[in-house]
Amino acid sequence: MKKTIILFISAFFALSYAQSQTRVTVIGASITAGHGIAEPEANSFPGQLQSLLGTSYQVFNFGVSGTTMLKHGNYPYWTTNSYRNAIGSKPDIVIIDLGGNDAKWENAPFYNELEDDAREMIHNFKTQGGNPRVILLLPTAFFVSDSNYIYSPRCQRDIAPILRKAAYEEGAEVIDLYPLLENRPDLVPDGVHPLEKGSEIIAKRIFKHIIYARAEARSGYESFPMEKRYDSYKGLAMAGYQGWFSCPNDGSERGWYHYAGKRAMFEPGSCKVDMWPDVSEYDKIYKTNFRFADGSPAYVMSEWDESTVETHFRWMREYDIDGVFVQRFVAEIKRPKSHRQLNKVWHSAINAADANNRAIAIMYDLSGMEPGDEQLLFDDLDSIAANYDIKDRKNNTSYLHHNGKPLVAVWGIGFNDKRKYGLKEANKIIDALKVRGYSILIGVPTNWRQVGAKKLSPVDFSTAGKNVIDDTEGGKELTAVIKKCDIVMPWFVGRFNENNLSAYEEIVKGDIAWCQKNKIDYAPLAYPGFSWINMAKDSKPIPRNRGSFYQKQFDICEKLGAEMLYLAMFDEIDEGTAIFKCATRVPVGESYFLPLDEDLGNDYYLKLAGEAARKLKNR
């Protein structure tokens, strides 16, 4: 009896969740079905649209290869079981991708019927399917020379104008797919069917339309911006994005990477993270050996999964955070599995940034680098520039530029913590990036302007006042390196708590004055708190104080006229600086986890960061 009740309750909540989702029905022919694509369920444009939209949407693919919009076409979609199932799917949104096969010469005698057939199909979905939002796709570009087959000139001359008119008459929305691939025959190897990358471009275009379309777009014409270019860091609040969390069986072959503790295990007593991610919105999650107070198992996410990265960028969009610097540790480029994950996460991130109109840039972290590793950085950046077009931004519009050039951040220059590399290697990197045509953000220690200040441990806040952090070496040589760069970003994490923010304010004020005098831009850093207990038991957390510590840093930066912000960090649960959605209820036992305040909610620090970003723009 008890088991039956549990099953009933589970089914009830599953049904309730399904009913709360926005249902998207996609009908069409072979491009919709994913012809020629490996794993079409995931990699067709409806499959990729599902990944972009996330778990609050459910996308149904009713594609049938070879079908036409015309009732008298060679294979009418109207006659298929998929059409009947699509009508009965109770959609909130309908996407219609028919018309390509209508361009076959054998269907031309019936073009005088195409408008009526298209209008009837739209009308049927609106009247029989619960009055959903209907989006009509105009045919994509085709690259075949046989004018009897699916011939692109006929599509553009005859089919597309009729479909657009039908959509207008019935109050449906229109997306013209032709401009997306008209110059990309390389993505359509058989001349008709876009493969994974082409389908990704189509999916992102539809995603943007669903998310961003304004009321006037319902007229059937595209009158809203579908892309955003970021030409300056000024006015932006950008977060750091690690992207390094992996799980067993996620495909990365790295086990519990960045989760596992001193025993190389991720289990109570052997743990590297101090915060627990809230996993309620991820498509994929992974069971751990940790448990909550009620005995239920705790789950985490993996950033190897593209859907996880897409969820993170969706949050950035929803909370108005402008974008991220994606971290690439030079020391990890040397290790094949690590480099593989860096590339996987970067691919996911730049596509998600483009889909969500977020800014994105690369940050090379030099920590762990050895002299001679500079060439690894150059080769890596050259590869990214070639494959992702970060300079011209034709394929990915959202890569961040500054001072007329693509921006690359280089972090970890001038620190006095006995790094193997020094200013010689830093100069070599900066000079090579300038020759390659990049704008440069340099990440430096807190006390970069004055070397030899009074020593203050990151866990000892008994002393407050200016220039209290002894973390810098290099003197005039460091200053010379900095003057070659476009933006300075000092590292403040672990240096201040709420009791000595007067020192923070004085340092930021002095930094801004120096940068203005030397005509260099300045990005002050704000962080919500710090915790390193599971990595160093004797460390003392820097408390968040219900967001007060974070907010006061924003207030100081606003008062001093800061033109940009660096938010540390989006996903850094190792050091307790994460601002993404973290758990208010955490596992119990041998390891420590910092819960977010339940009454504030799992998204409170996203809200604070988003509000700071909005104020930055409204000055």
What does this structure look like?
The protein is α/β, with parallel strands linked by helices. It has two domains: 12-219, Rossmann fold; 237-617, TIM Barrel. The chain is built from 18 helices and 17 strands. Helix 4 packs across helix 9, helix 6 packs across helix 7 and helix 16 (501-518) runs parallel beside helix 17. The longest helix is centred in the middle third of the chain and has 20 residues, at 336-355. The protein is globular, with a radius of gyration of 27 Å. The termini are far apart. Mean pLDDT is 90; it is low at 1-18, 214-224 and 453-467.
* CATH homology group of the largest domain: Glycosidases
The class by helix and strand makeup works out as alpha/beta
Measured distance between first and last alpha carbons? 63 Å
The description of the largest β-sheet is: 10 strands, mixed
What fraction of the residues are assigned to beta strands by DSSP?
5-15%
Rg calculated over all Cα atoms: 27 Å
CATH class of the largest domain: Alpha Beta
Low-confidence regions: 1-18, 214-224, 453-467
What's the number of helices?
18
The general outline is globular
CATH fold call of the largest domain: TIM Barrel
Number of domains: 2
How many beta-strand elements?
17
Q: Give the integer mean of the pLDDT values.
A: 90
What level of helicity do the residues show?
25-40%
| CATH architecture verdict of the largest domain | Alpha-Beta Barrel
What topology does this entry show?
Elements (H helix, E strand, L loop, with lengths): L1 H19 L1 E7 L1 H4 L6 H4 L1 H9 L3 E7 L17 H7 L5 E5 L16 H15 L4 E6 L13 H19 L2 E4 L1 H4 L14 H17 L24 E5 L44 E6 L5 E4 L5 H13 L4 E7 H4 L2 H20 L3 E7 L8 H15 L12 E2 L2 E7 L11 H13 L3 E6 L30 H8 L4 E4 L10 H18 L2 E2 L2 E2 L21 H12 L5 E3 L36 H14 L2
Parallel strand pairs: 1-2, 1-3, 3-4, 4-5, 6-9, 6-17, 9-10, 10-12, 12-13, 13-14, 14-15, 16-17
Antiparallel strand pairs: 7-8, 11-12
Helix pairs in contact: 4-9, 6-7, 10-12, 16-17, 17-18
